[in-house]
């Protein structure tokens, strides 16, 4: 920082040196003043030492405010404005005023954006609830005419629309997940079975079998959001499974007490270079682009929700031998820490 300060003050330094040289030249040219060469050197060294001390003192005082700002920028907190150092010079006062004005401006802009987002989410939620009414009527008609092959085909398409609307509704609720959170004991296998039952018509359309294996496990979680994660994983498994494929859902408990759910499909698998990015927003991967059926939102939303409710998502794949999606539930102590973090 000192070199930057010297570069900033170079015009003053050049002026001082120029005046010193000018003074020396005047003394040498003025024959009325007899000054010994040693005295000239002593005078110049003395001036330079005084100037060096003065420059060091000014550097320390003038950069104090900037140094304090730089230190705060390394560890920014929400109350950073209240911890701003007191300005000592006019440029620092201007900087301080600009920072406060910028903070006020962007707080207002952020408030406007949040307000617009709330209105948009309310509109989306309202629209979804309006759409659900005709979808419910369609479902009643489908249930009353299941013997008709054409109706079964319509049911599969109805399910796809239902899943898309359901995902959109959860996306609208995601910012307020903390206030929409209800803890209760739940069976991991039962939660998965409920999702399998809801997707039964799609599985039947593709002649896909779903098998359960392993020991069941009980966890404390939010049933609705946990089922949302399972829904995203299961829809992906059904979407990429071949006709007549098998999806195996295994549940177990680790030695550390973590409940684990594995969902293994027989799809094409995920390429090694795609695997680290499958939870990124908007990433569709090679399979998604080939089938033109992916939005890049399902796994991203699943990972976002999972990180908030104490679930770890992992993916394992060795093309073309399918994909294994793993849900690891936090044990009680870990989960309580995550929950406290959500509430603070």
Protein traits:
344 residues, alpha+beta, five-stranded mixed β-sheet, two-stranded antiparallel ribbon
Concise overview:
This protein is of the alpha+beta class.
Structural topology:
Layout: H1 2-8, H2 10-29, H3 37-62, H4 64-74, H5 90-144, H6 149-173, E1 184-187, H7 188-198, H8 200-205, E2 209-214, E3 218-221, H9 223-240, E4 246-253, E5 259-264, H10 285-291, H11 298-308, E6 311-317, E7 323-329, H12 332-343
Parallel strand pairs: 2-4
Antiparallel strand pairs: 1-3, 4-5, 5-7, 6-7
Helix pairs in contact: 5-6, 7-9, 9-11
Question: Can you tell me about this structure?
Answer:
The protein is α+β, with helices and mostly antiparallel strands and 344 residues long. The chain contains 12 helices and 7 strands. The strands form 2 sheets. It has a 5-stranded mixed β-sheet, with helices on one face. Strands 1-3 form a two-stranded antiparallel sheet. The longest helix has 55 residues. It starts with a helix and ends with a helix.
């Amino acid at each position: 920082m000192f070199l930057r300060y010297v570069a900033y003050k170079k015009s003053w330094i050049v002026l001082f040196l120029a005046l010193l040289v000018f003074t020396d030249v005047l003394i040498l040219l003025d024959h009325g003043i007899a000054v010994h060469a040693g005295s000239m050197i002593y005078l110049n060294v003395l001036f330079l030492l005084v100037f060096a001390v003065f420059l060091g003192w000014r550097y320390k005082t003038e950069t104090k405010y900037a140094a304090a700002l730089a230190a705060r920028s390394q560890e920014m907190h929400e109350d950073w404005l209240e911890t701003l150092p007191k300005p000592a010079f006019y440029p620092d006062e201007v900087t301080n005023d600009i920072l406060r004005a910028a903070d006020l401006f962007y707080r207002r802009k952020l408030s406007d954006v949040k307000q617009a987002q709330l209105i948009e989410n309310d509109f989306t939620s309202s629209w979804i609830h309006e759409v659900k009414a005709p979808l419910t009527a369609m479902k009643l008609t489908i249930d009353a005419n299941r013997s008709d092959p054409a109706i079964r085909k319509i049911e599969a398409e109805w399910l796809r629309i239902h899943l898309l609307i359901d995902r959109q509704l959860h996306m609208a609720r995601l910012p307020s997940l903390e206030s929409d959170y209800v803890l209760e004991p739940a069976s991991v296998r039962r939660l998965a079975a409920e999702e399998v039952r809801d997707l039964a018509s799609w599985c039947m359309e593709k002649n896909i079998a779903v098998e359960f294996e392993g020991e069941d496990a009980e966890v404390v979680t939010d049933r609705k959001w946990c089922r949302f994660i399972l829904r995203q994983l299961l829809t992906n498994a059904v979407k990429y499974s071949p006709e007549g494929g098998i999806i195996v859902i295994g549940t177990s408990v680790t030695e550390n007490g973590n409940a684990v759910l594995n969902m293994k499909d027989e799809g094409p698998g995920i390429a090694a270079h795609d695997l680290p990015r499958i939870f990124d927003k908007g990433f569709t991967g090679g399979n998604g682009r080939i089938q033109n059926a992916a939005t890049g939102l399902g796994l991203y939303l699943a990972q976002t929700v999972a990180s908030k409710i104490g679930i770890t998502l992992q993916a394992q794949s060795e093309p073309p031998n399918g994909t294994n999606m793993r849900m690891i539930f936090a044990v009680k102590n870990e989960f309580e820490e995550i929950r406290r973090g959500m509430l603070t």
